[in-house]
Amino acid sequence: MFLSRKVALCLAGGGEIRVVNAMADGGLSKMYQLVQWLSNQKDVDAFLEPVDWKTLGLTDYPLVISIPMDLGTIKGRLESGHYTKHAQVAEDVRLVWNNCKTYNQEGSYLYKIADKLAGKFEEKYSKIKTEEPDGPEDENQPPSLEDKRQFRENMYRITSDQLGEIVQTLEQQCPEAIAKVGNQDEIEINIDKVAPRTFHFLANLIKSSLPDKKASAAKKQKKAAAGGAAPPASTSGSVPGSAPVPTSG
Fold it and tell me: In this structure, are residues 147 and 154 in contact, taking their beta carbons and an 8 Å threshold?
């Protein structure tokens, strides 16, 4: 089963693209997004990288903290597929806050910041625990024909930016599944050659990126009630700004 599609590999703006490599599902993609969100919070700088205790002159740090941890390390572990369950990620995130609160005096600036960020994390993580099972039943289970059909269909519904991230992940994890066709901007994805673990992660990542059907329906109803007609759904399989591309297989 093949999927061909023209995609701009060099996205406008030149911004860095952070790609979540193939990882077990079960909420790990949401955990990655949560860690990214934490990394953008106010006063989080002290937790983004390992504590440079030598430069800071904190000679007793390795004696007090036996297992150092930081958000940057957690993001790297998520990208490399180190974790298999969202609970493992949560354990490391909590370690970041606990280490800080263990080393710093209660009531100090860093202690308060760690306590505040810990509260924000737990609030958002509680939703992930409710919505997602803690890891797949079998991440190496080969996808069914229906899984592949749905994967191909959903690939035509995501944005060009999202497609670019999917392609980069495949190039890193399953390069044998990608082939150049014609010029450098056109690629062909052989779904049958995508490793099961990578397939299931990408399938769920794509699914989570699709517009909410309920929200879309509510928006159309609201527009109709206001006297406007909802635009017909596109059946060409194309993304705004790109030409439809045929599929084969």
Answer: no
Say which CATH class 2-9+143-225 falls into. mainly alpha
Q: Classify each residue of 189-208 as buried b or exposed e, where b means 16 or more C-beta atoms within 10 Å of its C-beta.
A: bbbebbbebbbbbbbbbbee
**CATH number belonging to domain 28-131:** 1.20.920.10
**pLDDT tens sequence across 181-193:** 776 667 888 888 8
Within 8 A by CB and 6+ apart from 57, the residues are none
* CA–CA distance, 187 with 6 (Å, rounded to integer): 6
Q: Give CATH 1.20.920.10 domain extents, the chain.
A: 28-131
Kindly indicate the confidence band of residue 147, based on its pLDDT and cuts at 50, 70 and 90: confident
Average pLDDT over residues 163-167: 86
pTM assigned to the model: 0.49
